[in-house]
Structures are given as structure tokens and as C-alpha cells.
Amino acid sequence: MATLGPVQLLTLEFGPDATFEGRVLEELAVLESKGQIRVLDVLFLQRDIDGDTLGLNYQSEGMGETLETLLGLTPRIPDATGRAPEYGPGTKAFGFTSNDLRALAEELLPGTAAGFVLLEHLWAKPLREAIREAGGLPIAEGFLTSEALAPVAAELLTTTQTVDDLTTTQ
After folding, report:
1. Is the CB of residue 118 less than 8 Å from the CB of residue 70?
2. Given pLDDT bands bounded at 50, 70 and 90, which one contains residue 123?
């Protein structure tokens, strides 16, 4: 049976000065063409400049449906027993309840947007398999933002420079 590599949900915020010229989608396509990631789904929420209309925009037919289900915007798909898993207003999926997502959508300021990208990290699939084969089980995963790394950024840069120097001299 085929297995997925690590799957990540990216949640992005775009301010009123954001330019939607396709740069993010182009970069996702480059990473996908190199076999590093696989984009599983994309969902885009946008509040019009007049502030009254909230739109769900997709890049192509069928996109966004998996994320809508995962985030609790639509009912979940029945499991192997034929029953739909329990999913109520307080149930969280990826840290969001359906009420959280609706609140996020309502809080978008006029002209702003939020994007969700569900992607599989193909490059990490062999690592995940090695961990599992060794009897390990990942118990937490996450990417740290630049803001979260700020207190240790100088130390990390020094470490990476040292590693780079060692690698180039060997």
C-alpha cells in the first residue's frame, strides 16, 4: 500500500497591499517539478475591497474540496464502517474548529485574504519511513517562523556557516 510522506497545512495571510500575480503558485510548481513536494489542495478566502463579499476562490475545478472537509467547512467523508466521523462545532482539525475558520473569514479586513495549502513533503518520505522502521513514531512536527527563530537566529547562522565551512574544506 502506498503511503503519504509528511503532510503539512500552510495557512497564509495576505494584507491589502498583497499582489496576486501568481508568484506563490509558481514557486509551488517549481518545488513540485523537482519532486520535493506534491500540492494536494489549495483553498483561498478573500474579502472584497467593499468588505461585504467573502469569496472562496480555487485555482482549478475540484480544488479546495479536501481542505474544506479537513477544516470542517463541509461534512466529513464516511469511514470504512460507512459512518461519518464525529465532527461538531468544538472538534478541531489542524488546530481549527469550523467556527474558528468562519471567524477567521469574518475577521478578514476589506481587501485582505487567507490561503491554505495542503502539501506532501516528498523529500521527507524516506526519512519518515526510516524512523518508523527503527520503531520510532513522530510525535510532533512543525516549521518555525522567522519571528519564532529571532531569539536564536544569530546562533543558527553561525552554526550553519561553520557547517558550510567544514563541508567546503573536505
Report:
1. yes
2. very high
The CA-CA-CA angle for residues 27, 47, 73, to 5°, reads 80
Lookup: cell for 88:
461538531
Grid coordinates given for 67: 481542505
Please name the residues in contact with 75: beta carbons below 8 A apart, sequence gap of 6 or more: 69, 84, 87
Taking only the tens place, the pLDDT of each residue in 49-96 is 887 656 665 555 667 778 877 776 665 555 556 554 444 444 444 455
The 10 Å Cβ neighbour count of residue 25 is 15
Residue 37 CB burial class (10 angstroms; 0-12, 13-18, ≥19): buried
Residues in the chain: 170
Residue ranges of E strands in 58-134:
113-121
On average, the pLDDT of the chain sits at: 77
Secondary structure percentages of the chain, helix, strand, coil, to 5: 35, 20, 45
DSSP code at position 42: E
Q: CA 90, CA 76: separation in Å to the nearest integer?
A: 15
Burial 105-124 (b: 16+ CB within 10 A, else e): beebeebbbbbbbbbbbbeb
Whether the Cβ atoms of residue 124 and residue 38 lie closer than 8 Å to each other: no
